[in-house]
Amino acid sequence: MVTFSGGIIIAIGALGPALGIGFIGAKAVEAIGRNPEASGKIMVNMLIAMAFAESIAIYCLIFAFMK
User: Fold this and answer.
1) What is the pLDDT of residue 64?
2) Structural domain spans, the chain
3) pTM
4) Which terminus has fewer CB within 10 Å in the chain: N or C?
5) Which CATH number applies to 2-66: 1.20.1250.20, 1.20.20.10, 1.10.260.40, 1.20.1730.10?
6) How far is CA 15 from CA 10, 12, 53, in A?
7) Are 6 and 62 a contacting pair, CB within 8 Å?
């Protein structure tokens, strides 16, 4: 039962960050396509936002291992 609950935690906990990272990447590529001169600023902000979204998945993974 503990293994099942850990699997459910990481499955649901990784769904939100996966969708978030996909949306962040898509919007960044769209913004760079519209304004290529701003690609440096967009890329830095995109990477920071992706790191924050990924940290949520890492917290879920840690919590799943603690179960």
Assistant:
1) 85
2) 2-66
3) 0.81
4) N
5) 1.20.20.10
6) 8, 5, 11
7) no
